[in-house]
Amino acid sequence: MVGTLTRSERRIGIVLSVSLGLLGLGMAAGARHGVMAVHGMMALGLGLALIFHIGGALYDEPEPAPGRSGRYYDAPTRFGIGMTLLWAIVGMAAGVWVAALLYWPEATPPWPWTSFGRLRPVHTTGVIFGFGGNALIATSFHVLQRTSRARLADALSPWVVLIGYNLFCAWAVTGYLMGSTQSKEYAEAEWYADLWLVVVWSVYFTLYIRTLARRNEPHIYVANWYYLAFILVVAMLHVVNNLALPVSLGAADSFTIWSGVQDAMIQWWYGHNAVAFFLTAGFLGMLYYFLPVRSGRPIWSYRLSIVSFWGIVFFYIWVGSHHLHYTALPYWAQTLGMTFSVMLLVPSWASAGNAIATLNGAWHKVRDDATLRFMFVAAVFYGLSTFEGSFLAIRPVNSLSHYTDWTVGHVHAGTLGWVAMIVFGAIYTLVPQLAGRETMAWPRAIEWHFWSAVGGTLVYVIAMWNAGITQGLMWRTYDESGALSYSFIESVRTMAPYYLLRTLGGAMFLGGAVICALNCRATMRAAGGREDAADHPLSLHPAE
Amino acid sequence: MSAPRPYNAPDTDAPTGHREVDPVTGYDTTGHDWNGIRELNTPFPRIVVWALGLTFLYSVVTWVLLPAWPTGHTYTRGLLGLDQSEAAVERLREVDAVRQGWLARFDDPDFTALAADRDLMAWATPAADRLYQDNCAACHGFAGGGGPGFPDLRDTAWLWGGDPETVAETLRHGINAPDPDTRIAEMPAFDWLDRSERRELAAYVAALPTGDATHDSPAGFLFAENCEACHGAQGGGGLMNGAPSLADAAVIYGQDPGTVMETLRVGRRGVMPAWGDRLSAAEINLLASYVSRVSENGKGGRE
């Protein structure tokens, strides 16, 4: 990292690290004890580590060669991919563990931090923000530079973004373990972590816009539209949903300013748009770049990509209320959520169709190249889960599916089948390039990963479909006598075989991710000197 | 990746004029080129327009029929005039009406007459079972077998009595529950006894169910002095005052010496919630006859 920075950048880096350490010290001193004090110490530790890391190399390591502005800045991407894989393993392992706990609840160890309630958000935050978020940031830097034919606007802010973002994830996850949570799903981290993320996100947005402004292409490629929508809308959602009053400046507790049904509506406006703009828009950006690159085919339809972008962005924002069917939320809000969800299907399928049609003329590559196959499967699952989403949003369907494991199955069709698959496709495209090699170190292992990922996803999703529909039916069946036909506990016990299968499917998926991480490590260790002569910015901008 | 072309090359990005044609699809490209990524100028597929139109039509029809758009202080009600709270209440009333058809018979706690009506019981037992599973199984077990701290409801050993009238009374007011008429049953702590005395007592109590206890012993005297008032002569119980018989095989907390030592040290005060506010009188009577039948059938509970 330090070797890619000039001496003056290193000095600014030290100043920033000192500020981070002071911030951590302030938090720890202000809180004295409890979660916030631990988090302060974490920030202090990170600040000190960075000071030593940069300071140790301040004068020793040579400065980057003068021509660095003539090349893309890939060191942050490399770091981001590393963090992606690390979080993949942490988050997915937590998921497999909590899945196993649902089958063997007696296996819960006696310590509070190992309870299901604390580990579940470790899983969701670990995979969505840790794995997904790092993958989005790392690939966005790559895609942004390539499609703009410009180097990142400066060398420090990508590090601020990545290190700051990972500090947020680490704060969130360790906070849950210590029992600290805002109790908002996918937004459990407490107020100071939320504020920290706002700072990090502003740096990210500024960097993105500044680099885009320096582009040497007349048009902004559609992938960048998606990444930008992701950055911008996530900022808006995050700020509004997390508005809260801290109990005191020295405590990790706060009260949300929203209350009652408004709170529920804001939460699911956030929650569903986290699916839309975090788990969909950003990854569509990834798809729109890596799919044509890997298949060597032009995007099938320019018009379709533009129309689906605006369709997705416009319709998604409305649909959060479909999470609150048959609740205290007014009926009219539910109707709007339902109808917009149905209309949303068209642009979603247009995107999936556009991706699949792009593969026309490259089907032999899909057959032979597991990396491209990851992307193809991702597009198929994207189509599948968006259809399912619109279907589940229809009120009467929802009366069967809501609160059941069908929802869990739906989410995982999207996250395993679509999000994770496209990430793996992108990683297998990127890592050899970052390592200066033609291929991954173990090309065969990509096949193993592919099949365990696809197999794991199918086992998981099919088990949860069955589980959810069974649950929904058991909960709504009445005897002739007007009594429910099944007690609740019976429906719980019926889930046992499905929960076992789910654990198995998850373990298969995790196994694949571990193979991927090992493969990437081997590839980076066996780095070569191969360089794509054409892979450089078009005109030279000084990197300030 | 194909080699990128500089963006200002004359044949690119011109809205008209020369463009490259993709040999696979036969469509020309838009002329944009990002690091080798190009886009086809495929005409907008008809089917997408149709699909958009169709989903839009669905939405408009739904908006006309159902409550949909807010208009300041109110909202468009929709032609069907649906209201979700009314619909929910109506549905509950319907189910309740079916249930009341037979449940009303349990308002009158003439348990002998109820038990004699075999048709009624055949009809009601599955409902009673569900009521039991949803409200009682968490403590008393799926099959009524109880567990540490929670009595077995299938056996014939009772704290208060197993006839339906008594069970109904227990259910209504609970045991040691926050209810003015609750049953009170407290096992006082005997921590003031010497530890050695407690140890002897514990050994004595543990031997009671097997009949190996020597009553004519220091422990036997201690028991007669301190415990008989509640637990009956030689722990035989039967006083129906909430204190269990210590001579039978049934246990609540456990009758091994270790657990008895714990019982003597800290005392016991098990809580059975009062159900009078949560379940209707008829439901309580239904459950009472169900529980006493489960016990009559010996181990003939569920499973």
Describe the structure.
- The complex is a heterodimer of chains A (544) and B (303).
- Chain A has 544 residues and is mainly α.
- Chain A has two domains: 1-62; 74-527, Cytochrome c oxidase-like, subunit I domain (Cytochrome C Oxidase, Chain A, Up-down Bundle).
- In chain A, 72% of the residues lie in helices and 1% in strands.
- Chain A has helices at residues 7-31, 35-57, 75-103, 116-148, 157-177, 191-213, 222-241, 260-295, 302-316, 331-358, 363-368, 370-392, 395-401, 405-434, 443-476, 488-494, 496-525, and strands at 244-246, 254-256.
- A two-stranded antiparallel sheet of chain A has the order 1-2.
- In chain A, a hairpin with a 7-residue loop joins strand 1 and strand 2.
- The longest helix of chain A is centred in the middle third of the chain and has 36 residues, at 260-295.
- The relative contact order of chain A is 0.09.
- Chain B has 303 residues and is mainly α.
- Helix content of chain B is 43%, strand content 1%.
- Chain B has a two-stranded antiparallel ribbon with strand order 1-2.
- In chain B, a hairpin with a 2-residue loop joins strand 1 and strand 2.
- In chain B, helix 6 packs across helix 11 and helix 7 (195-207) packs across helix 8.
- The longest helix of chain B has 20 residues, at 46-65.
- The radius of gyration of chain B is 37 Å and the shape is elongated.
- At the A-B interface, helix 8, helix 9, helix 10 and helix 16 of A face helix 1, helix 2 and helix 4 of B.
